[in-house]
Structures are given as structure tokens and as C-alpha cells.
């Protein structure tokens, strides 16, 4: 089975940032807030928030609460994000 070029572009995009990797790895386990992801990964909230925004722009994660909510924002992984993560995992890229 051939993997599309865009999927490899997604893989390259994610593995080019350790924070994007950490965020996706955490969200594979289930939905989480930025502060929980930061605590679980030992990263700063600033790096986690930036990675979440980048991954959201690429449709790999989604905001599960209202856009208006400023505190208690919960994020989840999308089917696209899960598919890319599975590829990273099976190819031993993470």
C-alpha cells in the first residue's frame, strides 16, 4: 500500500518539532488541557500551546470546547492526527 506524499509531509512536519511529537503522543491517550499536556511531558505551557495551535492549523488536533472559552480548553486528536501518529509509530520515527 502506497502512502501519499501529503501524509509524508505531515510526518515531516510533526517530527521537525519535539513539542508537536510530545503533544500528539499525549493526545493519543485521550483529551487533555494544555496545562495537563505540559505537566505530563515536562514541557513549558508556552511550547505546548504553540504546538497545539500549529497542530490545530494542520487539522491534527481539535478544540473540544467552545472557541470562546479561555480557561479549561480541552483538546483532542483528530482522525488525521491519529493516522499520522500511527504511521510515526509503525515506522519507528518517534
TrEMBL record:
Parts forming coiled coils: none
InterPro entries per the UniProt record, alphabetical: ArsR-like_HTH, HTH_ArsR_DNA-bd_dom, WH-like_DNA-bd_sf, WH_DNA-bd_sf
Domain (HTH arsR-type): residue spans on this chain: 10-90
Organism for this UniProt entry: Halogeometricum salsisoli
CDD domains associated with the record: HTH_ARSR
Protein name: Winged helix-turn-helix domain-containing protein
Amino acid at each position: 500500500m502506497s502512502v501519499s506524499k501529503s501524509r509524508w509531509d505531515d510526518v515531516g512536519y510533526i517530527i521537525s518539532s519535539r513539542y508537536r511529537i510530545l503533544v500528539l503522543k499525549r493526545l493519543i491517550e485521550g483529551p487533555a488541557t494544555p496545562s495537563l499536556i505540559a505537566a505530563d511531558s515536562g514541557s513549558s505551557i508556552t511550547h505546548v500551546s504553540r504546538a497545539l495551535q500549529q497542530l490545530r492549523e494542520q487539522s491534527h488536533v481539535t478544540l473540544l470546547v467552545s472557541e470562546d472559552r479561555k480557561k479549561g480548553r480541552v483538546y483532542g486528536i483528530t482522525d488525521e492526527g491519529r493516522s499520522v501518529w500511527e504511521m510515526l509509530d509503525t515506522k519507528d520515527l518517534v
